[in-house]
What we know:
This protein is α/β, with parallel strands linked by helices. It has four domains: 3-133, Rossmann fold (3-Layer(aba) Sandwich); 148-310, 3-Layer(aba) Sandwich (Rossmann fold), CATH 3.40.50; 315-389, Helicase, Ruva Protein, domain 3; 403-450, Arc Repressor Mutant, subunit A (Orthogonal Bundle). It contains 19 helices and 16 strands. It has helices at 12-24, 35-44, 61-71, 86-94, 107-136, 148-160, 177-187, 205-213, 230-233, 252-261, 287-292, 298-304, 320-336, 345-353, 359-373, 386-389, 409-423, 428-435, 439-450, and strands at 3-8, 27-32, 49-53, 77-81, 99-102, 167-170, 195-199, 214-215, 227-228, 238-242, 263-264, 273-274, 278-283, 307-310, 342-343, 378-379. α1 (12-24) links the parallel β1 and β2 (27-32). α5 crosses α13 and α13 packs across α15 (359-373). The two termini are 47 Å apart.
Amino acid sequence: MRGRILVVDDDARMCELLESALAEEGFAVSCHTAPATALVELHTAEFETVVTDLNMRGLSGLDLCRRVAAERPELPVIVITAFGNLETAIGAIRAGAYDFITKPVEMDALIVAVDRAVGHHRLRLEVTRLRSAVEASRRFAELLGDSPAMQRVYELLERIVDADAPVLITGESGTGKEVVARALHQRGRRADGPFVAINCAAVPESLLESELFGHARGAFTDARHARTGLFLRAHGGTLFLDEIGDLSLALQPKLLRAIQERTVRPLGAAEEIPFDARLVTATNRDLESAVAEQRFRQDLYFRVNVLRLELPPLRARGSDVLLLAQEFVNRCAARVDKHVTGISPTAAERLLAYAWPGNVRELQNCIERAVALTRYVEVGVEDLPDAIREYRPEQLVIGSDDPSQLPPMEEVERRYIRRVMEAVGGNKTLAAQVLGFDRRTLYRKLERFDGR
Length: 452
């Protein structure tokens, strides 16, 4: 069934024509020649769209629109009118109509309008549901989402939350790896201890060793005071090493020893100091390929990869996009004290259609911008960035015989790989099978494309 439709027209013959045309297209239709009885059924049955004539005895189509807008604001109304002028259209829209059709009615145009209205209604209900679901879905602190992909994440988190073994979190940039690490800490038995985090790619190599292990006074020039390293600061809690794939080869054996021995020796110190902290690491790189290419030590890889958690990209999480977007609207509106309550259905359609190469981080930036720009209580399409408003799935069309207009093979490969990744929801293992690559080859190609 494509949707439940309520048809109201005091012309019985017109009612029959509309019912026949809509039923033939798979809609369930209930017809009324009296607006008053139609209103009664609206209170006793569920409909997804109302189709009404404008000029009727007893209650006009505009009056019916106003009643529906007041009592069922989520229900779209399509008005049929014999007067297709601008004044009539404006009157219908002001009365709360979703769309209007002029007589004589072209059934194909009516079917298209009803189909759009049903889709609008369903999406509005979904947006409303997600607003109320934001708080209810907080199973792991800041984590949001009820898609199958996130359900699998929650299931694994439940199983490893109290384990002390090292955890490796993998996933594309922007998928929320640090958020997951914090959730593990906050729900685990070490929640009362400190959560200490560092981005290994953001600290110069010359300083990272001192940051991790600390140093004694006089260990090097300007070391006027002893410094406690992050391993010791995380004692009793969790140490999160982000972007561990960027760790230098020189520092990797020192990190391996600290993990194995559960002790650290600060720079310039004579003795090793024991620590008790859970280690959680994260990377957006393919560590297996890095091991094969001798850019990452195999023994360290095995040591940090005891428990592995792979985060899905946002494009593989379905309506989680809207759930997250609604949460970001709530946060941003509260922060700037602005009355913005949600996302319009048309804006929601664009958010769902977009591929989100920057994942959750990109969505958060998008919503923060939209809340700042919007002049209404809901974020609209016009508030979204151009890239999202104008997005179309990437396709390769060769429409020229001019050699100068033909793309190079690398560009053809890039577009095709991106298209396959979208089609499989970001699942790299499945994408590699479709492409005929091994996973390492696919990771290398994706990394090269990301760097362009």
